[in-house]
Amino acid sequence: MSRNARRSQKQEKIEKEQCKKHIRKGNLALAKIHAENSIRQRNKALNFLTMSARVEAIAAKVQDAQTMNRITNSLRKVSEAMDKTLKSMDLERISKLVDAFENNLEELDVKESCIKDMMSAATTTAVPILDVEALLNEVAEEAGLDLMVALPVEYGSIEEQDDLAKRLAKLRE
What we know:
Blueprint: H1 2-25, H2 28-88, H3 91-120, H4 129-142, H5 147-150, H6 158-172
Helix pairs in contact: 1-2, 1-4, 2-3, 2-4
Family: Belongs to the SNF7 family.
Pfam family, one: Snf7
InterPro entries: Snf7_fam (IPR005024)
């Protein structure tokens, strides 16, 4: 899974470079497509990482089940020991055994709760428009281009662009 995540991250970078290339050429339509693809690849990488975490969580759950199997065997032995202890009525020893068993159960409950929380978290696969625009602006800045000037039709009137350019200049100061 992590290998697939790395592949998706590599593809994300490739799509980002393509986006930058098309912004430089002034082709917004292709730049948007590559920006969307880049975001999709990023989400895909996140999904792979999430799935990897889920697989690890399931592996932990299997390991917990094996531990529970060992605990069951231990309980059998403990039960036999308790029978012997009950005969001698050593309440302190019985209390220690029960406390140890309760601690194991509490630990298992905490682990199961964590696993359920991790598995219930879901990632979205939709590409929000704001993310696409943010990536376009980021790529344009990396390329040293002013996206607002290069693409005036997509981003409002000239007055709005001038206002945004002034605000950006103030922020950069």
